[in-house]
Specification:
Order of helices and strands: HEEEEHEEEHHHEH
Structural class: alpha/beta
Oligomer: single chain
Strand content: 25-35%
Largest sheet: 8 strands, mixed
Number of strands: 8
Number of helices: 6
Strand order of the largest sheet: 1-2-3-4-5-7-6-8
Shape: globular
Distance between the termini: 40 Å
Helix content: 10-25%
Number of domains: 1
Radius of gyration: 16 Å
Length: 194
């Protein structure tokens, strides 16, 4: 059984950055996956109170291979494209030039898609058109819903990661700074708990 300590996710787990896990375990022999949130910036804590992170990467899907220092597949959504910088700072050398990374930005115009190189890695940067990162990726990778129906969360996560590995569609390449010029204001999600 592959454990998180055998993967590039070990330090993120030790730092308590992997939050609200929907799934956290082996996806197939030799691979470990996580679905949940990554804390990008912790809120200031007073005494022993637990506070939610100030900035986070939501709807995260990660798959990492045991014994490898980098993450093979990562996807998630943030309120702003500018948080890509924070994500890269948090992940650091866990990012690879050959990894498949998908960053959905809540403040990107709906008709814009880019590839942005940052932190030694290339990100496919997209707006979130559907309600979830999972549905966006399933559509983008043309994964048949029928293929996923009888699978558990681990199997579904691995299928998406495997499809990402074969994804090589090119989007217009821009710099992170150019992306910041294109993005709009941060939209606060409706029905947000106060």
């Amino acid at each position: 059984m592959t454990t998180i300590t055998e993967t590039a996710l070990a330090s993120l787990d030790a730092e308590k950055r992997l939050l609200s896990p929907v799934f956290k375990g082996q996806t197939k022999p030799g691979y470990f996956g996580f679905r949940g949130e990554i804390a990008l910036k912790f809120a200031q804590q007073f005494s022993d109170e637990a506070r939610p992170p100030e900035i986070r990467f939501d709807q995260v899907m990660i798959v990492a291979k045991a014994g490898e220092p980098t993450i093979e597949f990562l996807a998630g959504v943030a309120l702003s494209l500018e948080y890509l910088k924070l994500l890269c700072e948090v992940l650091g050398d866990k990012l690879s030039p050959t990894g498949k990374y998908f960053f959905f930005a809540g403040n990107l115009p709906i008709d814009k898609k880019f590839q942005i190189s940052y932190g030694g890695a290339t990100f496919w940067v997209l707006p979130l058109e559907e309600a979830t990162v999972y549905n966006e990726l399933r559509d983008m990778f043309m994964i048949d819903r029928g293929d996923l129906k009888k699978m558990d969360t681990a199997g579904k996560l691995q299928i998406v990661a495997d499809a990402a590995a074969g994804f090589d569609e090119k989007f217009p390449e821009i710099s992170f700074e150019e992306g910041l010029q294109v993005m709009g204001p941060i939209k606060i999600p409706e029905n947000r708990p106060v």
